[in-house]
Amino acid sequence: MTPQDIASRIVRYGELQPCKTAFIDAHTPGSDQKENFTIIGGGVSESPDQHVHISIPHGFNIGAAGQPPRCRNSLHDHHTAEAFFVLSGRWRFFWGRWGTAGEVVLEEGDIFNIPTGIFRGFENIGTDYGMIMAILGGDDAGGGVMWAPQVIEDAADHGLVLGEDGKLYDTKRQQSLPEGVKPMPLMSDEELAKRPEPTTAEVLPNHVARYWDMVALADKTPCKVIGETGLLKDRPGFEVDFITRGSAREDRHSHDRPSVLMPVRGHWRVDWEGGSATLAPGDTMSVPEDLAHSAVPSMTGEAALYHIVGTEDPAGPSWTGS
């Protein structure tokens, strides 16, 4: 496979195309400056403005959120798994019906595997524009987003209405619900009462992995971060490995399905028969199935890389208290 063939499967950080109207809170003060990116797969955007960089099915989606300081992503849930790692900045994640059940602060390189069934939100609490990368289970990413009722109500006050068809209608653009399409119904009190409210102490041990802990664990061999035998034991429809300079190998290997390489530190050279490419932090590379390849740091200094591959597992169990 030639470098030209692979070029269409590499999304460079500097070439990411943002959508500023992706979700229902796009006009809500405090959330109206965020940018959403759909890198691999259709994503869960509610807007036709969203640009999909790579549409090849992988069994999971890759997306990203970029936000200036103090910009917030509102409380929501997915039908499938959602995991985030911090590419840049400092981020506070919070969860629960009102976002007050628990919270955790993530630094660059940290990863958070969030179970379904829990409303979650996040905000950039750093001093500069920050970026978090998202892995969503399933090719269809669960068919959309479920919003906390107050998010839908606040959005309507600022001109955005979510239809029961899962599409956004913007009254600021003179849009209205089509005939026969009703507004997305709010969750009932009975439905909301069934949702768990885990504390920070309950969530952190089995759902958050810290960058420097993974660096230590990946000194000789790759660290399995998310997977049945992973540091965060889960079967969300994908596996995530963490690789450093010490655990990278020149030997080539392949997978029977597409895999994804996402550097968080350093520059990485990816080699395959017929070509090579160099990836920098923020770049995303989709490696074709059955393509023998290797990935090693191409420069001295700190180097770390996330590797994602889909599995046959259901894409995201609900919170079970572990």
From TrEMBL:
Domain of life of the source: Bacteria
Domain Cupin type-2: 72-132
Pfam families: Cupin_2 (PF07883)
InterPro entries per the UniProt record, alphabetical: Cupin_2, RmlC-like_jellyroll, RmlC_Cupin_sf
Protein name from the UniProt record: Cupin type-2 domain-containing protein
Species assigned in the record: Oceanicola granulosus (strain ATCC BAA-861 / DSM 15982 / KCTC 12143 / HTCC2516)
